[in-house]
Design a protein that fits this description.
This protein is of the alpha+beta class. The protein is built from eight helices and four strands; from the N terminus they run ααβββαβααααα. The chain has two domains: 124 residues, Orthogonal Bundle (Arc Repressor Mutant, subunit A), CATH 1.10.10; 53 residues. Strands 1-3-2-4 form a four-stranded mixed β-sheet, covered by helices on one side. A hairpin with a 6-residue loop joins strand 2 and strand 3. The mean pLDDT is 90. Bound molecules: zinc ion (ZN). Zinc ion binds next to helix 3, strand 4 and helix 4.
Amino acid sequence: MKRSRQQTAVLLQLEQSARVARQVTDIHWDGNLPVDLPAIAQGLNLRMQQDGSLAGGDACLVYDAERSTLRVNPVNSRQRQRFAIAHGLAHHCLGHPSHADAPDSFNMGADIASLEANLFALEVLMPELAVRQVIRQEDLYDVSELAQRFGVSATAMHVRLQSLDLITQQDLDCSSAR
Ligand SMILES: [Zn+2]
């Protein structure tokens, strides 16, 4: 009983983070792809900096009452940096304290704050409407090509397509067998 209440609380918290992400997208996204993350950060009064000293890390959110800063490791691939930025935007928007992200922050089995940030990132990087539109209007079903359009990794695209029920485990098995 106690456990199921806790699980419900976690689910509500995760739903809330996805809802905040959709609000951010509604207000700050210009509708173009890939989603312009620096423009969204600017709209949210979040300063962005590249920081080559984040050895092995992905990003670091430094809270400041006036203007927080998101430092991003420029050594990583473009897709990884974009995910780190979207994930950092989540910590900023969800009121999480100063926070450093290493690669395991992006796992779906991580702590609740990381999970919230990851769900938020998927929503912001791949808005549902845009995903459905690109697939329908451009007849684009290839996960790698879709990933390229949205500026994300194929893994992130897979997770998003699954969460929107646009891909089945069978599709995944077929595409990895190719
Ligand atoms: Zn994080």
